[in-house]
Amino acid sequence: MKKISYLIICFLLLNACNQNLGKFPEMFVGNWSMDNPELKSYEVWTKVNDSLYSGKSFTMNIQKEELSLMKNGNDWYYVVLINGQNNDEPVPFKLIKQTSSKFIFENKAHDFPQQIEYNFRSEKNLVVYLRANGKQFELYFDKQK
Questions:
Q1: Which domains does the chain have, with CATH numbers?
Q2: Count of CB atoms within 10 A of residue 129's CB?
C-alpha cells in the first residue's frame, strides 16, 4: 500500500511541475519596472510566436538593450544585443537550469555577465541576478498591468 501511495504522490508532483514548466517563457511577457530613486529601469516582453519572445530594456527611459528568448532545437537561449558593445553582435546565453520559477542562462565566454538568472518570486515580482567572477548584481522588478 505504501508503494502505491508513494507512486501516486510522485505522479502528482511530476504533473504539477510539468504544468508550471509550461508557463516558460510566458512568464516573461509584460511590462516590468524597477523603481529605484537612482535608477529607473524597465523591461518589456512580447510573444512573437511559440519559439520567439522579444524584449526591450530601458534605463532612465533610454533603450539600452534588445532582448530575446529563442528556441533552437530543444534548447532555449536568452539573447542580448547592446549597441556599441560586443562589436554590435548579439550575445547568446543558453538556458542551463530551470525550475518552475527560476531560469538560469549562461555564457562562460562572455566577460560580464556570464550568468543571468530570472527568479520569478510571484506573478508580479521578479529578481534578475547578473553574475561573473564572484560578482553579482541584483535587479528587482514589479510587473505593471
A1: 2-144 (2.40.128.20)
A2: 16
Q: Rounded distance, CA 21 to CA 8, Å?
A: 20
What are the tens digits of pLDDT across the range 42-99?
Answer: 999 999 999 999 999 998 877 789 999 999 999 999 999 998 889 999 999 999 999 9
Beta strand segments in the chain, E = 30-36, 39-49, 52-59, 62-72, 75-81, 91-98, 102-106, 115-120, 125-132, 135-144
Peptide bond into 92 cis (omega under 30): no
Q: Is residue 5 classed as helix, strand or coil in its secondary structure?
A: helix
pTM above 0.85, yes or no: no
Taken in order 105, 78, 41, 26, is the CA torsion positive or negative? negative
Nine-digit cell string for 132: 561573473
Look at the block and give the residue holding cell 529578481.
127
DSSP string covering 64-80, please? EEEEEEEEETTEEEEEE
Q: How far is CA 92 from the centre of its chain?
A: 13
